[in-house]
Amino acid sequence: MTVGQIAGLIAAIAFLLLVLFIGLFLMKVGRTMSEVNSSIRSITTNVDVITKQTDKIMATSNSLVKDVDDKLNIVTPVFQAAADLGESVSSLNKATQNLTGKVKESSKKGVTAGIAGKFGKSAWNLYRNRHHSKK
Fold first, then answer.
1. Torsion angle of C-alpha atoms 13, 19, 24, 26, degrees rounded to 10
2. What are the transmembrane regions (predicted)?
């Protein structure tokens, strides 16, 4: 065998090894791609299930929000009535305070009138006694 033939044989063996390693690499890549496709199918199925469940949850949430809104519309007049009652009680308190003030003022005037009345009565009694005593 000549040197050229030995070099050709080494090149052929190297090329064969290269082809074998490339073949093994491509087989591993093929298996990996199969697993990726399987995972994508599984993810797609799971996403579909999640989407359906999300739709149900959204429908239920919308129903609950509508129910709460309806009940809030029912309760709103109660809160308005309570607010009106609070205003009425406040007005009643103010009126009571005004009446109390007027009663205090009139009682002061009544005391003054009572003192003046007693003084007047005493003066009348004195006048009458003098008038009787002169007769």
1. 170
2. 6-27
* 61 or 113: which leads in pLDDT: 61
The residue that leads in pLDDT, 123 or 4, is: 4
Residue given tokens 């579909």 in the structure block: 48
Give dist(CA 40, CA 35) in Å, integer.
9
Q: Which long-range contacts (CB under 8 A, 24 or more apart) does 38-45 make?
A: none
CA dihedral for 47, 53, 59, 61, sign (positive or negative):
negative
CA distance 105 to 111: 10
The length of the chain is 135
Dihedral angle at the C-alpha atoms of 21, 23, 27, 28, nearest 10 degrees?
20
- Calpha distance 133→82 (Å, rounded): 74
Largest CA distance in the chain: 187
Q: Is the dihedral of CA 81, 86, 91, 93 positive or negative?
A: positive
